[in-house]
Design goal:
Layout: E1 7-11, H1 18-26, E2 31-35, H2 41-57, E3 63-67, E4 82-84, E5 89-93, E6 105-106, H3 112-115, E7 121-124, E8 129-136, E9 140-145, E10 149-151, E11 157-158, H4 171-182, E12 187-190, H5 196-208, E13 215-220, H6 223-227, H7 229-235, E14 238-242, H8 243-246, H9 255-268, E15 273-276, H10 291-302, E16 307-310, H11 312-315, H12 320-336, H13 352-371, E17 375-379, H14 384-391, E18 398-402, H15 405-408, E19 417-421, H16 429-442, E20 451-460, E21 463-472
Parallel strand pairs: 1-2, 1-16, 2-3, 3-12, 5-6, 12-13, 13-14, 14-15, 15-16, 17-18, 17-20, 18-19
Antiparallel strand pairs: 4-10, 5-9, 7-8, 7-11, 8-9, 20-21
């Protein structure tokens, strides 16, 4: 069983060998992420089959995360880079056939000529080039460069504070998600989410294909998403602070302010949150992190992130295992000096079942702190009871018992939740209780004279019967 409360997500390439996957798991990785900006169903099929196989064999217990390409805006392919000088005037065109000058740039977003206005600034290639719109025409924009730059093929174009007319998913996203669903995916990280309606569109797509158990992680990475943050959080299962693209759309010194705002909103609505991008970027090339990176990971834990994510650090493969090991040690140090107080969160729902489970979770953790219980055990088919316990940031392990396969592998990112699959719940709670106690003893989480808390919400004759039991170990 993993030791840290805050979970670790590791990005790998789609040709990652299975031996490396097992090494990452043994170094305390909980979730494997594949970035489908670069991967395809064909290129990743073997890796996903291997992960499912090692999970089944007991070598790993990993959840899988598909990170979609999403509806981004890019320049097009160039045979040679474009050399731009400050104050140079050139065109950005939406009709490729009208490219007549070497200095022209093609943009794959046709609505750019409708969405921007004269005087607005456009960011190309992550602040490498900043241009000002001088003229808006039917098929092109005339812009002026505000700095020198060299622009290669397929570079990102960002339109800060512009409400763009893009869909929630592109066709590649649909194809990729349908493929991964067949491979028992646990999470979809939806790129470039801008509104709550975007999240609903993805949820409808999943539901229509019979996979409502798949959790949606909405990536906050543009200013329009910040404008609609509350609705996005309410409609999502998870939130990711995707700092790589988010910082491009604002002055970099404002990024910590918005990171804190996103985290606070997630706490308000009981939504788990991931902090991503460059947490230990120097370890792409170096065998140890910088002091600033150590502080970044440490402070992410203090800010009560549910998970932290490694990207290039584990995908490039120079020091992937060391990066995870350093991250786990930093997390452990931060958690060792932190005690969570289980804030009296607003229940934020009128759903009777949710109110019951959230209230039960809160009181169970408050009781656990009072009596110094060693663990909280939650029996749940859907896993929601364990997720609510996780949202309150427990100070002791939460062991989630479920008979559902998908629920079992959807707990990988939840803060200090460990999932145990049992064949079938019994008709008598005392039997389930004995199963839980034996499992905790086997994991050496409890010993004689310890106390644990066990909670259920069972349905009998359409009446919900919640229970909290304090069980002494004898």
């Amino acid at each position: 069983m993993q030791t840290q409360l805050t979970k670790i997500i590791a990005t790998v390439k789609d040709d990652c060998p299975v031996e490396r996957i097992i090494q990452l798991y043994n170094a305390w990785v909980d979730v494997i992420r594949i970035n489908f900006t670069h991967a395809t169903p064909e290129s990743s099929k073997k890796l996903l089959e291997e992960i499912n196989k090692t999970n089944k064999q007991g070598y790993t217990h990993l959840s899988t995360l598909l990170d979609t390409k999403g509806p981004d805006i890019r320049t097009w392919i160039r045979e040679t880079p474009l050399q731009v000088k400050r104050n140079q005037v050139f065109n950005i065109l939406i009709d490729e056939s009208k490219l007549t000058k070497e200095s022209d740039i093609f943009c794959d977003y046709a609505w750019i000529v409708k969405d921007v206005k004269t005087g607005q600034e456009i960011i190309i290639d992550s602040w490498l080039l900043l241009v000002e719109v001088k003229e808006v025409n039917k098929d092109w924009l005339t812009v002026k460069a505000l700095n020198d730059a060299e622009i290669w093929s397929k570079r990102h174009i960002n339109l800060p504070w512009v409400k763009v007319s893009l869909p929630a998913m592109i066709e590649k996203d649909r194809t990729d998600i349908l493929f991964w669903i067949k491979m028992w995916i646990s999470y979809v990280a939806a790129s470039f989410i801008r509104t709550g309606e975007n999240v609903k569109e993805i949820r409808t797509f999943l539901d229509k294909n019979g996979w409502n158990h798949v959790k949606i992680i909405s990536k906050i990475e543009n200013k329009e998403a910040l404008d609609n943050l509350e609705e996005i959080v309410k409609n999502s299962d998870w939130i990711m602070v995707a700092r790589g693209d988010l910082w491009i759309e604002m002055p970099i010194y404002e990024l910590p302010v918005y990171q804190k705002k996103i985290l606070d909103m997630c706490f308000q609505y009981w939504r788990p949150v991931i902090i991503a991008t460059e947490l230990m970027k120097s370890m792409v090339h170096n065998p140890f992190p910088t002091r600033a990176e150590v502080s970044d990971v440490y402070n992410s834990v203090l800010m009560r992130a549910d998970a932290v994510m490694l990207s290039d650090e584990t995908a490039v493969w120079k020091y992937p295992i060391k990066a995870v090991q350093y991250m786990e040690k930093i997390i452990w140090e931060a958690e060792r000096t932190t005690t969570n107080k289980h804030k009296d969160f607003d229940i934020q729902t009128t759903n009777e079942a949710e109110v019951l489970k959230k209230a039960l979770s809160r009181y169970a953790l408050m009781l656990a702190d009072e009596i110094h219980a060693k663990a909280v055990v939650a029996f749940s088919y859907s896993g929601n009871l364990a997720r609510y316990l996780s949202a309150l940031k427990p100070n002791i392990p939460v062991i989630s018992f479920t008979e559902d396969f998908e629920t079992h592998y959807s707990m990988g990112i939840n803060f200090w939740v460990f999932s145990k699959k049992i064949r079938k719940f019994s008709k008598h709670m005392s039997e389930d209780q004995e199963i839980a106690i034996e499992a905790l003893k086997e994991e050496k989480l409890i010993k004689k004279w310890d106390q644990i808390i066990i909670i259920w919400v069972r349905l009998y004759n359409w009446i919900r019967q919640p229970q909290i039991r304090v069980v002494p170990i004898v």
